[in-house]
Design a protein that fits this description.
Layout lengths: L2 H26 L2 E11 L2 E10 H24 L6 H20 L3 H19 L5 H27 L19 H17 L8 H4 L5 H7 L4 H16 L3 H21 L5 H21 L3 H28 L12 H4 L1 H15 L5 H16 L3 H26 L16 H25 L10 H4 L1 H18 L6 H6 L12 H53 L1 H21 L1
Antiparallel strand pairs: 1-2
Helix pairs in contact: 1-2, 2-3, 2-8, 2-12, 2-17, 3-4, 3-9, 4-5, 5-6, 6-9, 8-12, 9-11, 9-12, 10-11, 10-16, 11-12, 11-16, 12-14, 12-15, 12-17, 14-16, 14-17, 15-17, 16-19
Amino acid sequence: MSICLISFMSLLGASVSLFFICLYFIVNDLVMFIEWEVLSLNSSSVVMTILLDWMSLLFMSFVLFISCMVIYYSDDYMQGDSTLDRFIMLVLMFVLSMIFVIISPNLISILLGWDGLGLVSYCLVIYYQNVKSYNAGMITALTNRIGDVALLLSIAWMLNYGSWNYIYYLDCMKADHTMEVISWLIVLAAMTKSAQIPFSSWLPAAMAAPTPVSALVHSSTLVTAGVYLLIRFNFAFMNTYLSKLLLLLSVLTMFMAGLGANYEFDLKKIIALSTLSQLGLMMSILSLGLYNLAFFHLLSHALFKALLFMCAGSVIHNMKNMQDIRYMGGLIKMMPLTCSCLNVANLALCGMPFLAGFYSKDLILELLLMSGVNFFIFILYFFSTGLTVCYSMRMVYYSMTGDFNFMSLHSIGDKYWIMLKGMMGLLFLAIIGGSLLSWLIISTPFMICLPLGLKFLTLTVSLMGGLMGYELFQFKISWSLSIMKLYSSTNFLGNMWFMPTLSTSYLNYSSLMIGKLVMKNIDQGWNEYYGAQSMYTVFSNVSQMNSYLFLNNFKIYLVSFILWIMILVFLMLL
């Protein structure tokens, strides 16, 4: 039995068990703290604390279910890889790190999982070992390191309370200056991990990892760790200046990612930018105080986003590792099962009624309309919703419809049965997962009272976005050249507002130029003139003089003796 199958069966069993335990906890309204004393020395003790409530159990169940489907899928996708065992072990370490983050009410044990996620994600991003992967891995690791440092600083500030179990202090210490500082640091850590502006550039770069890893990272593990941490911390910074700042940055992230996805031609990067857009949605609704709703969308999004990446991986696998959507087209005729799964995941992402994304997304937008946010946030929210449908339609238009644009001799088809079975497992939940979660999470219905126009606004914006995506990209050839120049991935809109450039070449350029000037003018300039070369010349001259004196010391002694006698005689004659 292969390692993939063993891991799949183990994770699936654990996922189902945790789900039923979660149901028991929800029905009986239970919260359980487990303290394990790892080490006790005199009066000092090292204690590992575990928090089990409906939220942590449900999230763990979803993470393990998606992981088992991804590992099963990898058995076919990574076939022929000589280091498949190493790959599966890395994925399992990744899942274990995420579980540490989920079950920890203690900042120290959170740091254990947090750093584990950062380290293992670096190992997975550079898995294919080429220059592009190394660069992507480095920007991922360094950006996440900012958040790790913020978490370390918050651990240092927690010393003021005498314990690192933050969950005890969130509500009672809300007005405290120390808790305010800790909140700022935790929000910074969460923003780096969940790739909010200005730390967004690492998320599309991390697409250098194998596609099964992308499915796991972008659905339920790495990028959602920041959102989950803020869901736990939400009582500390609600209705403060920090929550307003987070709302602005997250809505801008959502808008920026939606625009960028409409300019992108890489299939995996389009889906990565859609993840970034949904993360902005989660963060923004969280900053409005609706943390239960943010958690609801986090789980429903995980289901269809993992499916979306797995479908994209199947397409890329069939297209001989070609990711450019311009080379695709007409795939619906050749890969009907994969394209059906892709369409379901896309419709769930767009908020199609009664699929997984609808229940959380529609509720978020309706509650936003009732929350009294300003017009700027309102416009960005609904424009971003329209952009989601726009880039989804664009992706479908390029990849599934029209003529096939790849090689005339090909073997494209739904022939990878293990990959298809992995996708089918998630397809079922992408359809019914939203309604299932709404019954579990929302115990009492929300009272939403809106006029008819606003009630249908979400659906109207989605339909307009889909229509715009279809019209614009169907007739793009007839655009004038001046408009076509805007349609480029190198301009401001298509290049994520120049964030990848700012966080790489611009950030490095000044320091590298200063280094060059220092080396040229000091190290190889004045230092050489007054330092090494000058000292060498002086010591060389002194050494030559000493050598001359030591080699002719008898002659010098006689000459000096004669000179001394002559001076004495001269003085006597005077």
